[in-house]
């Protein structure tokens, strides 16, 4: 029988200690904050769903975070773009995501994960709420939590996306959305090493928007630890269209209304999707506004979307022969991100963290058709046992050491020239990615790109050369 020798074990331990890890982000009042530095964290993000939802094919062994070669390329392009967060919609909890997630972690990019998918028994069905709120469904959401709970760059889970999308679904589904949120948060409290935020992603339907937010963000019976309360509220917003459209300003886009609606929010609010494409190419002139005076209320947003699909929202085109090409939207978005003052975005707004969540009451709900009952459905039979025992044989992801940094697939610039030497730059533990090569650090200083690249390599290199030395010594024995 092969025995793992002590020197090799020592190297494995050494390497494990040196796996780079971002600092956790948590919710504090109406802000996301870094759990170590208490700096504010604002989402500068993109939606990441290679192939779109049509491309989600669990039986195939492929999901957006299953191929490290593709993630390495995308992480390099996103690092240059300046994003610090990706949103991933459809994931197979049984696949191995370690390579991809470790790459995104290594470049300081966090993940917002949807626990649902378009497959049967993997989301709430607004037409069959009671039967779709099942043990099988919740088991799937818990399996997604298991798969991502150990990664330090898991920023949060969406318990539901656009389930309330009409006046009709606003009448029936709210108690179920709170029930699913409660079950997932109970599962996390019992089975996760840290409290990972769980929230909602809302459709932009003006008749129900304010009520959706008010319904999900209050405390039932004034219980400040109410697990059914959403930890954050995302809005999929496409109301600001490009410069030649009449909606390309603060008032006509309705951004001013959002700021007054959410002015007293007790939980973080952000755009869980944005980037209207009615005027193309997109120039993203809403970016300086979203990260300008709106930051007193909003915590940033995620541009829809990274991969080009037939709906034409992409930043980058991908071809089946493995090559890809940046689109002009990528360059335009990068230019806008590069104007942001990341240091200012990180500074805390202490009043936002002080707002107490209101107690739930039918008086919080303003339209007559919207559900105003805070009596939630009981969890289906078997769920509390599942929460107590944990999902059996669950696939639990963990960080692995990232050694390859060079992108091997060809990427072409907007003008069609091959981009040479495309690579990721591994960041030290205390940094996350940001625009313009800027990163956030606990020291408050913003180091140059060169420094952070070097630091990442030193850590990877230490592990590598220690391994080499020990293996050599071992061979010589
Ligand atoms: C990952 O994607 C690359 C490029 O398309 C492909 O060549 C490779 O076979 C894929 N790897 C796996 C494990 O599927
Ligand atoms: C729960 O999910 C796990 C992981 O996907 C799966 O192996 C198991 O069969 C599921 N159990 C039930 C009861 O659905
Ligand atoms: C914050 O950090 C503390 C100390 O390391 C840790 O115990 C706690 O679990 C973290 N909380 C969150 C929400 O990440
Ligand atoms: C915020 O900025 C917008 C657009 O730049 C402007 O119209 C609005 O008056 C500003 N609001 C405040 C409160 O400063
Ligand atoms: C926020 O709450 C304060 C105090 O209750 C109130 O005076 C103010 O009008 C509220 N603002 C908004 C935008 O709702
Ligand atoms: C890959 O496919 C794209 C789109 O069809 C094409 O423009 C490009 O030249 C191809 N690249 C190679 C290396 O074949
Ligand atoms: C709220 O939703 C629940 C569950 O769908 C339903 O039973 C109840 O009738 C609704 N209540 C109101 C006041 O709309």
UniProtKB/TrEMBL annotation:
Gene3D superfamilies: Glycosidases (3.20.20.80)
Recorded family membership: Belongs to the glycosyl hydrolase 72 family.
Organism placement in taxonomy: Eukaryota, Fungi, Dikarya, Ascomycota, Pezizomycotina
Places the protein is found: Cell membrane
Source taxon at top rank: Eukaryota
Region feature Disordered, mapped onto this chain: 431-450
Keyword terms of this UniProt record: Glycoprotein, GPI-anchor, Lipoprotein, Membrane, Signal, Transferase
Biased composition (Low complexity): 432-450
One Pfam family hit: Glyco_hydro_72
Enzyme class name: transferase
Name of the protein this chain belongs to: 1,3-beta-glucanosyltransferase
BP GO terms, sorted: fungal-type cell wall (1->3)-beta-D-glucan biosynthetic process; fungal-type cell wall organization
Record-level Gene Ontology MF annotations: 1,3-beta-glucanosyltransferase activity
Record's signal peptide: 1-21
EC number: 2.4.1.-
